[in-house]
């Protein structure tokens, strides 16, 4: 989950941090903590899960619109909850319910439109890409910076990034690079580019449709949509070189490939990329690359189960406590000088990685809907081994 721009200990959340409105046959969710860039707390996750389940079951609901108040859609999870709570039951509950929710949004039976008019970072990016339609604007910025602070690309993003063209997914996951709206459209992470001044009118049109038919909704959004194309300054213009370097088997080999290209004319951006990766947690980098690579051959369900194991084991400090050092340096003390342990890529061995990827006993796995085993809205945290 991504770093919120906040300080001190985690705040208690108001019920008004998630607003839900009924507008005819449409339901509108507004993430409503703009002062904290709509960070995702345990309470926010619980509320979102409640209303998504309720509205999928209601026959008079055709469509869900999700948006954020202020200058962010969502800047992701509240990392201070991780820092102060470590791997206690309430933290594990928040993680479990976030991943469980992500599966249900990805597979939602009704049309979900995310209106992303600002930051969509970490968990905010996850909520974005799970939606049926992802409306982006000139203010939209998306990134997945988790590897940089000792974590991994999570909440379904290992699956989503692994399915991007070429090896753009590995590049985004390992560097935490930010994409603007035009680049999101080019990669498929966004579906429609709509100028921000048109959003109010777009929302009214969607409400007036009185239909969640995806073709009808798509056509309505396209009435407000601009055709855009990324320019030569975009990192996507470097696609062939990204694929050449980030297709390598290991993080070490990726760094070697980048270093070999860094002195070539026109490749000045590569030096910045190398420095960004060097600042990141070696453990986070290696977990993330293996996770994204595995995701190329995994289903969404398998990816979420894997991500849940990684998160729980990371919070438990099974092979490293880098996540806590990363959060300390980024959010708590804000000195931006983390001391990673282990400090080098070579010390994060495949055998160590196996320890955080190994499956749990069945009762401690993330329980997601499966034929004849778990019903559509079954498998909740309250039925897991964590509460037995």
Can you give a write-up of this model?
With 388 residues, the chain is α/β, with parallel strands linked by helices. 44% of the residues lie in helices and 11% in strands. The protein contains 16 helices and ten strands. A six-stranded mixed beta sheet has the order 1-2-3-5-7-10, with helices on both faces. Helix 6 packs antiparallel against helix 13 and helix 13 runs antiparallel to helix 14. The longest helix is centred in the N-terminal third of the chain and has 18 residues.
Comma- or semicolon-separated keywords:
388 residues, alpha/beta, 6-stranded mixed sheet, 4-stranded mixed sheet, 16 helices, 10 strands, disordered N terminus
Describe the SSE topology.
Elements: E1 18-23, E2 26-31, H1 42-57, E3 63-68, E4 72-74, H2 79-85, H3 89-106, E5 111-116, E6 119-121, H4 123-129, E7 133-136, E8 141-143, H5 157-162, H6 168-175, E9 179-180, H7 181-187, E10 192-193, H8 199-209, H9 214-222, H10 239-246, H11 251-261, H12 268-279, H13 282-295, H14 300-315, H15 322-332, H16 350-357
Parallel strand pairs: 2-3, 3-5, 4-6, 5-7, 6-8, 7-10
Antiparallel strand pairs: 1-2, 8-9
